[in-house]
Design goal:
By secondary structure, the protein is mostly helical. It has 14 helices and no strands. The longest helix has 17 residues. The protein is elongated. The protein starts with 5 loop residues before the first helix and ends in an 8-residue tail after the last helix.
Length: 239
């Protein structure tokens, strides 16, 4: 039997990844990861941008982590500038799984600020895992500008990115916890709780943030309120 050429094998993989049955697409992606070929990389990356099924996408990412690292990195990085949101988010997700610090310079402020929430939260996760020690405090400052943004799922993802940064995130989170914007302050306080209690759920952290804010407000913790009382303009302290 004549052995298939690499291009023929890649063509067969491309066709198999378009099968109507998602379980068949999973099997094809598994085979591509089990028996890696350089010619598979482009096919897998292209499919990541179009695949509608989450389980298949996860298998595609796994298959890419099994391919030649340099070829995979070279194929993924241009996807970060794709006009297709799923291409950007899936490339970021795969880069976070690869854990190759060479990708860090390509995670730009535009990705961290992406209007698409799936892209943004994937960029936050990838950045928090790939940033070198020297850049982690600055990354925390950039991420802090998103505190209070979006729905609970998006906020949960941002808080987890701060948790991944650990002590390098504390200063940025502490500053945000003094914000006069209620949503920002609540999110920052919830994140601060998770920094100290990373095993807690985000919902637990939000509940604790509300209690913390109420206690601080009742005690006149806010610097502005303290200043008003000192000047005689504010209400007297509680007895």
């Amino acid at each position: 039997m004549t052995q298939a050429t690499p291009d023929a094998a890649a063509d067969r993989l491309r066709a198999a990844l378009q099968h109507a049955d998602g379980s068949e697409r999973v099997r094809s992606a598994l085979a591509a990861g089990t028996y890696p070929r350089g010619s598979y990389v482009r096919v897998l990356v292209d499919r990541c941008a179009a695949e509608p099924d989450f389980t298949v996408r996860e298998t595609l990412t796994w298959a890419l982590t099994r391919q030649d690292r340099d070829l995979t990195l070279a194929a993924l990085l241009p996807e970060l500038r794709s006009p297709v949101a799923q291409a950007r988010s899936q490339a970021l997700h795969t880069l976070s799984k690869l854990g190759d610090e060479r990708a860090w310079p390509e995670i730009t402020p535009a990705l961290l600020d992406d209007a698409d929430p799936d892209v943004a939260k994937t960029a936050w996760r990838a950045a928090s895992g790939l940033a070198p020690d020297s850049d982690r405090p600055a990354l925390a400052d950039a991420l802090a500008t998103h505190l209070g943004r979006g729905e609970p799922d998006l906020r949960r993802s941002l808080s987890r990115a701060f948790v991944a940064l650990g002590a390098d995130a504390e200063a940025a989170v502490d500053r945000a916890a003094r914000s006069t914007e209620w949503e920002v302050r609540m999110h920052a306080l919830a994140t601060a709780h998770l920094l100290e209690n990373p095993e807690d759920s985000f919902e637990t952290a939000v509940a604790e943030a509300r209690r913390t804010s109420a206690r601080r407000d009742a005690a006149g913790w806010d610097d502005g309120a303290r200043s008003d009382r000192a000047s005689g303009d504010g209400p007297p302290p509680a007895r």
